[in-house]
Amino acid sequence: MNVTRRGSFGLLIGAVLGLGMAVGPASAQFKEPLVFAAASMKNALDEVAAQWQRETRKKVVISYAASNTLIKQIEQGAPADIFISADLDWMDYGQQKNLINVETRSNLLSNRIVLVAPKESTLTLNVAPRFDLAGALKDGRLAMANVDAVPAGKYGKAALEKLSVWDSVKDKVAQADNVRAALLLVARGEAPLGIVYQTDAAADPTVKIIGTFPEDSHPSITYPVALTKTSANPDAQAFLTYIRSPAARPAFERQGFTVLGPGGQRS
């Protein structure tokens, strides 16, 4: 079952892409750096951007969506200056397609995936091998980001497969365009359970975490960041340096991210 929840994400990306296709390179488009960032980063990165603006009196424009959507938009000519992916695969794709400045690439954050339910739910589950997720769902759906393309969905499917649960629920999955859209299905009560990032759950008081997936049940959740190949905006490099600096760390940690140090290690 596919669920389309584009909302403001899609509208903003479409507008940006339209501008980029019409008039050329990123540096000619915006006075402010344009950041394409994974949807799960919204609360934390908005806070970092506001903090940077207070300190420097400079602004950034940020477009949030699924990582696969963003890098494909960049590939089609969207004038982004910075790309932040929710997994290594889509940053690797950008590198293979010569879309990013490899010298600026680094691993910024890590995250966890969790099982969430509406706040008023009385469900309890122990996330472990062969746990009865299908029984908990009953006739309801499991909200997930697209399991073939969106990082959160890919991590969730990998975890369910490792725990020998996927086959029992694969026909009950409601797939959304990005992880925040999956979260919204649970928040609205349209799905009794969903798999999202820990940081998404923390950002929405209408849902609660009822289980956390073991870290060894899925590939490590890593958020890499890089300037795009076409970026010529000096403020983009300045903002990239800022989000990797100690000044930005508290904002990321307040939202539940783990900040990675040099070499991608937890610091």
Question: Can you give a write-up of this model?
Answer:
The protein has 267 residues and is an alpha/beta fold. The chain has helices spanning 7-23, 42-56, 67-75, 88-96, 133-137, 151-162, 166-169, 179-187, 198-203, 234-243, 249-254; strands at 34-38, 61-65, 82-84, 106-110, 113-118, 142-145, 173-176, 193-197, 207-212, 222-227, 258-259. It is built from eleven helices and eleven strands. The strands form two sheets. A six-stranded mixed β-sheet has the order 2-1-3-10-4-11. The chain has a five-stranded mixed β-sheet with strand order 7-6-8-5-9. Helix 2 links the parallel strand 1 (34-38) and strand 2. Helix 3 (67-75) runs parallel beside helix 4. The protein is globular. It starts with 6 loop residues before the first helix and ends in an 8-residue tail after the last strand.
